[in-house]
Structure formats: structure tokens, C-alpha cells
Amino acid sequence: MNACVWCGRRLGGVVTVSQLWRWGPLIRSAVCRACQTRLTPISSQHCPQCGRQQTDETVCRDCQRWSGRPLVNHAVYVYDAAMKAYMQQYKFQGDYTLRRVLQEPLRLALAKETYDVLVPIPVDQATWQQRGFNQVTGWLQTQPFQQALLVQATRKAQPQSAKDRAARLRTAQPFTLAPNAASLLTNRRVLLLDDVYTTGRTLRHAADQIYLGGAKAVTSLTLAR
Question: How far apart are CA 51 and CA 73, in angstroms?
Fold first, then answer.
């Protein structure tokens, strides 16, 4: 019997009749039922522009303050204490096994999106060397994606997670287009993929570059808001 990749509990081996009749190998979850309910999905009542959970479906105050080209972001989960604990263990402590917790939810979320090219938000060289992986692409399984964006600096002066809202909004453009970006993006619908939408500054910087690469539309999807 396998163990849950998040809490370590043993996973049950119950097989349903429909699974027995299904052609092909059995697909077992890597996460126990208890851990599958630890994260809070964003309900139908959310901001239509950024995906923030709220009590109605009006555009939130944060989105109303943005100027320029709008960016529609869809989010899967609320960034609450459980999601923060998950991100701490997966992203900051480098527990790569935990990527399996959100691979299936992300697959289902991507299936609802309309796009031609999937572009994950990249990490800088120092983060890659220290952590050994991009937390965003770690959630992808067989979904094709393009590395159309590069981080200009090799190291962040201060990580986004350590900044307050005002400092995040002042962040300079960190991205540049990859050498072959135009051939990938011209007249295409691009979906940006990131882990957490906080202020939207990072995604808007990325969208600006993607539009410069010739994309006809840019939207985004994040695991949390």
C-alpha cells in the first residue's frame, strides 16, 4: 500500500466496479481523502477579473485600481493557512514530491481554459540552483508548454513573498522574451500559469512581454488567490 505524499498516511486499496471494467491500468491517487479536502476551492462567488473569493461577483477594489490593458485571471484555491503550509513545504522547503498533490486539480482547471499556448512563469537562475525545480512546471504532467519568458536578473534582490503590497506594485519588469518567442506567440491565445496571484503585478509584467511577442490575447491561471 502506498502512502499519502502530503501527510504520510497509508492509502486504502479499495477498487470500485467501474475501475475494474475500465480498460487500462488502475490510476491511484497520491493523496489521501483527508488531504484532498484540506485546500479550499474558490466558489462561484469571486471577482471576475482576478478570481478573488468574495461575497458577490463584482469586480473587486484591487482590480478597479489597475489601469491599462485588463488581465483576466482564474484561480483554483483560496490562499489560506492550508495553502500557505503547502507552499511552504513544496516551494520554499523544496519537497518536490508534493507536486503530485495539485497535478490533478491543475489538469482539470486547464481543461476548462481556452488557449493556444501555455506559458509558465519562470524562476531566476539562483532559485533554480537552490531549489532545483520550477514549482509551476512541477504541477504539469503531460500538458505541453512553452518557455517564452526568461527572467532578466540571475538573482532577485528580495523574493516576492517577503514584500508588502506597495513593494510588490513597485517591482520593475523582471521578464524578457525568449529568443524564439515571436514564432511561438504571434496571433496566438496565451495562458500564463503561476502559483499564487497576490497583487497581479508579476502576471501583468509577464502579459506585457507576451503581447510584445505578438500574442492576440493573454489570460492567466493560478493555483491560488
Answer: 6
The three-state (H, E, C) secondary structure of the chain, written as one string: CCECCCCCCECCCCCCHHHHHCCCCCCCCCCCHHHHCCCCECCCCECCCCCCECCCCCCCHHHHCCCCCCCCEEEEECCCHHHHHHHHHHHHCCCHHHHHHHHHHHHHHHHCCCCCEEEECCCCHHHHHHHCCCHHHHCCCCCCCCCCEEECCCCCCCCHHHCCHHHHHCCCCCEEECCCHHHHHCCCEEEEEEEECCCCHHHHHHHHHHHHCCCCEEEEEEEEC
- Answer whether residue 154 shows pLDDT above 90: no
Model confidence pLDDT, tens digit, residues 13-47: 554 555 445 555 545 688 999 999 999 999 999 99
Whether the CB-CB separation of 205 and 170 falls below 8 Å is answered with no
User: Given this model, what pLDDT does residue 170 score?
Assistant: 78
Q: Is 57 exposed, middle or buried (0-12, 13-18, 19+ CB in 10 A)?
A: exposed
- The pTM assigned to this predicted structure is 0.88
Give tens-digit pLDDT for 32-86.
999 999 999 999 999 999 999 999 999 999 999 999 899 999 999 999 999 999 9
Going by C-alpha positions, the residue among 217, 224, 204, 72 that lies closest to residue 139 is 224
